[in-house]
Amino acid sequence: MGEVFENSVIKEIINRYKFIWSIDYAMGLLEWDMETYMPKEGIIERSIANRHLSVLEHRLLLDPELVSLVEKAKSIETLNDYEKGVVRVLDREITKAKKIPESLIAELREVTIRAHEAWVTSREKNDFSIFKPYLEKIVELEKRMADYLGYVEHPYDALIDYYEEGWTTKDVERMYDSIIPELKSILEKVMSDSRYPKCHYLESYKYDITKAVEINNRLLDILGFPRTRARIDVSEHPFTINFGIRDARITTRYEGYDIKRTIYSAVHEFGHATYELQIDESLSGTPLARGVSMGIHESQSRFWENVVGRNFAFTKIVGSLIREYFPELKNFSDEDIYYYINTVKPSLIRVDADELTYNFHVALRFRIEKMLIGNEIKVSDVPDIWNNTMEEYLGIRPKDYKSGVLQDIHWSQGSIGYFPTYSLGTIISAQVGYAIEKDLGKKLGDIIDSRNFAEIKEWLKRKIHRFGATYAPKELIRRNLNEDVNPEYYISYLKNKYL
Amino acid sequence: MGEVFENSVIKEIINRYKFIWSIDYAMGLLEWDMETYMPKEGIIERSIANRHLSVLEHRLLLDPELVSLVEKAKSIETLNDYEKGVVRVLDREITKAKKIPESLIAELREVTIRAHEAWVTSREKNDFSIFKPYLEKIVELEKRMADYLGYVEHPYDALIDYYEEGWTTKDVERMYDSIIPELKSILEKVMSDSRYPKCHYLESYKYDITKAVEINNRLLDILGFPRTRARIDVSEHPFTINFGIRDARITTRYEGYDIKRTIYSAVHEFGHATYELQIDESLSGTPLARGVSMGIHESQSRFWENVVGRNFAFTKIVGSLIREYFPELKNFSDEDIYYYINTVKPSLIRVDADELTYNFHVALRFRIEKMLIGNEIKVSDVPDIWNNTMEEYLGIRPKDYKSGVLQDIHWSQGSIGYFPTYSLGTIISAQVGYAIEKDLGKKLGDIIDSRNFAEIKEWLKRKIHRFGATYAPKELIRRNLNEDVNPEYYISYLKNKYL
């Protein structure tokens, strides 16, 4: 795009922002290292460094000169889209930093450290009462957070917007209202279709980890994972982190059984990494050099994981690698592998859920969060509501807290308002798949068969990635997919695939 | 030691310093990652982050409130040793930061980036004239640096003190005057002793790298490398870096031949790591939580590498591992291995030099640096002086620049005044060995035979490590070894060992 920042106020803002960017960059590396290579006891001083760097970043963000430059820029009428983006993103961050008192941040950090321990113990002992007081405190603090941030209709709006700029409780409700009944009907039909197995031999097949590492690397190479700008390592929970736009780190894990788990983690994280690696170079080191929201980020990871990765054409590639590295599995046909990778069954654990049941899990959490933040229910009501909703949605009921209300780490970390972005991303991923096929005039399966993944990446770059955070999520989709976020594509995708 | 900071001014200084410490911590991790795992293109944005973090650190160091607190603390008479140490270290840093203009730092950074490239090309083409103008510029900037820093007798004093607090050109001259003639005489005798081979079969023996990795890990475990606070990785040039006192990272390299190189790199770096890992916990996050100087640091690495590592008792351990992992070498006796590890021969390359010839290499660089900074010679004179001095010291003469004046990276990095700390560290390492044997009433060889390395580490912790930067180098040695730095121990050590 060449040089995109011309206004002198914006240039001055970006120069000052580079210090904040650098601290952010460093904190990213601290986090990556903590999850991958850090010796255990290093955590003590790592936390101290982290805390001080956060405070420094906060101070730099509220630096009066930066704040007044941003204020000044808001009234300039001749800014181009990128310049407007810089102002929008920084104004949002400064406003948040101003509204939320440091004491609340500190209190939340304090309680979440202890809440995490309590959550672990609570799970181990299958005793919700251990975690309950912490969750109560967290909900209380999140309500205060919502009050500080402000909202028009529902306090939960403030929390959603924190993760997904411009989205509201109503938006999320509308989204679930349009997909839940459809998902139910598709799921019912698939459950009576014997082609989709409820369990599969390969789920319990024990694999040699060194071979799985090679398979992941082969697949990443096929996808065009740029090794001079990216790497894959191992961590307990798979994640992606980018330092700038020329250094992306993804991780996966190797459980030693059910090999699709490690493969599809890697493909998922590849999607996250590719997003930020394809941001335009002219945005490097600016507030725009990031994924614009959790939902858009998740749309990219789930696009590669599901829309591409679980496509028959892609599972053929996976299957050929599995047969090559594990000759004892040579009798598994492409179809066997496809149905192994696309097993469908109502299950209790969100992270193990298939494409058809996944959103029920997320919708359940949204329902509960909204009622908690809206004072409609108490924390003590949550386990029963969880179990009843699970039965209503998927016809199954957790037998213990670990497979029910205590399964996710999010609440113990104080993340309330985050879950809906998982569904949003999933829905957008199908809309992206539709738009690609329409634009390129080809079926995704054919592109995958030809292994021309560069064509897909090029499209994603042109339509979404290169802009970074230039446009707010809704505007990004509207401008580039020529339509608002529309769950119908997701439903058609599932119908086409499963029925 | 318990809580050692009681004065409220000092406590306030330390609180403010924690931000500087955190930036330093992060920059350490950035550097470690750059040398180990960073994807190649990451360097572009890594440099930007680094530059901004350096500027932030510089600003925080010159923050008027911190500066005035340190000024205030200088006049408090009731400070304990640790509190005085905090004032001494920070006063030194602030003074340097004040004296050296940012423009000089920037110019030096600028020229060294280009100088490095020129140095590489100059080596490749065996053409000193390519590097010459850069070295001229660097020498000019270093002279200006010396003028800014100030000195009493010789401008080179200012540069030495930069790396080795309290040391002067005279100190270094005195050191070399007392060791060079002795070293010459020992070397002459050893060269006519057929037990010390000039080359050894194992130098060209090609090893399997995965086995060498295991040997290094076995050795580190025997030495008590604390895996919950430390790790070893691979990099092009071996180095050690500590983040705080609970996370040390060492590296080594695997050339695939002459296995002692990788093993003794690992043992050398183990010495560096152990120093900072054994700093007292009460100093964590303060200006004292670091090795006090390059010389003291090098004394620790060379103590483990040479005084312990090249001791017959230790080479027996190395030998047993070599025979275990490479059964085809099972006929090499403990004596064979000892003489392999202790090969002596005049050679042209410093980093490959043995214990007897090493200091000639460093003395040569010191001589040249002193004359350059003192305006006694020009850069164009350096290659001839280098070659003549090499002939005078070791009786050999480089045939090209790569094995002569262009062999070290240091000058291209603007490091002038650094080399003498290598000799200083080597000398102190023998003095430490002497003090341990005297204090514990045991021979080092016996302690090594019993594999009770904890006893050695405990002694080092008590006498040197735990203090971090509390005492300036000379005072640290005087207080804890009950004597000034004394090269006689080094000479006796060599005589005992080689004659």
From TrEMBL, chains A, B:
Enzyme nomenclature, EC number: 3.4.17.19
Bound cofactor: record note: Binds 1 zinc ion per subunit.
Molecular functions per Gene Ontology: metal ion binding; metallocarboxypeptidase activity
PROSITE patterns according to UniProt: PEPTIDASE_M32 (PS52034)
Lineage top rank: taxon: Archaea
Catalytic activity: Release of a C-terminal amino acid with broad specificity, except for -Pro
Family matches, as PANTHER family: CARBOXYPEPTIDASE 1 (PTHR34217:SF1), METAL-DEPENDENT CARBOXYPEPTIDASE (PTHR34217)
Function (record text): Broad specificity carboxypetidase that releases amino acids sequentially from the C-terminus, including neutral, aromatic, polar and basic residues.
Name of this chain's protein: Metal-dependent carboxypeptidase
Organism expressing this protein natively: Fervidicoccus fontis
